[in-house]
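Help: read this over?
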Amino acid sequence: MHLIPFRLVGVPLPVHREVADIALTALEQARRRTKGVEHVRAHPSRFGARGIAFCSAAQSFEEAQASCRELCGAALSSAEQLADWNIEI
């Protein structure tokens, strides 16, 4: 299993808790559709959200990073409030 840390950085800063909660919900929904991501843990922060993706050991580390980026991208594209957010992996 590969553990890939990530941050979703909101715009504008600081991020309101309600918007961070939208991001967390979007991450969980995107996880169900993202191949190679077995589990995701995330929590809100004043910058948006921080988390870790647990990716399949069958992938290379680079593939696991790509799966995490896909997960985060899917989450951010699923809600209008997250349209200007950025991904840091």
About this structure: Residues 15 and 75 are 16 Å apart (CA to CA). Strands lie at 2-9, 37-45, 48-55, 86-88.
